[in-house]
Amino acid sequence: MGKLLYGDPRREVDIDDRTLAHLQIVIAAKLRRREGFFLTWRDDGAVGDGRSSVWLHHSIPLYFRFSSAQRHAVNREWLDELSKAANHAGGLHLTEEPGRGSAAR
Q1: Does Ligase appear among the keywords (predicted)?
Q2: Rounded distance between C-alpha atoms, residue 69 and residue 14, angstroms
C-alpha cells in the first residue's frame, strides 16, 4: 500500500501501488500544465463510508511513496478514463481499474 502525501502539513492518503502509479501519470500531466483540480476517493471503511476530496495545485507539495520498487504495467484504458475525469468540472474521481474488478481506495 503506497501513500499520496499532499500539502504542508502533509495529508496522507493510502492508495495501493498500482492505482498510485496510474494517478501519478494523470496528476503529473495536469500539474505540468498548471491545471488545478479535485481528486476524490472513497474513504476506507475504518473511517466511515464516505468520500474525501482534495484540491490539487502545482504550488502545493506533492509526494508519491510506493511500498514496493516494482513498476506496474500501464493500463491505457484506465489512464484514458482517469484523464477524462480529471478534465471534467467535477474533478478526478478514483475508479476501479477496467478489467480488474478490485476497488481502488
Answers
A1: yes
A2: 17
The per-residue pLDDT for range 61-86, each reduced to its tens digit, is 999 999 999 999 999 999 999 999 99
How many angstroms separate the CA atoms of 69 and 65, rounded? 10
Residue ranges of alpha helices (H) inside 1-105 are: 17-32, 76-86
pTM for this predicted structure = 0.85
Q: Which domain holds residue 60?
A: 2-93
Cα of 42 vs its chain's centroid, Å: 11
Q: d(Cα 53, Cα 41) in Å, to the nearest integer?
A: 7
Cβ atoms of 65 and 14 within 8 Å: the answer is: no
Q: Report residue 25 as a C-alpha cell.
A: 501519470
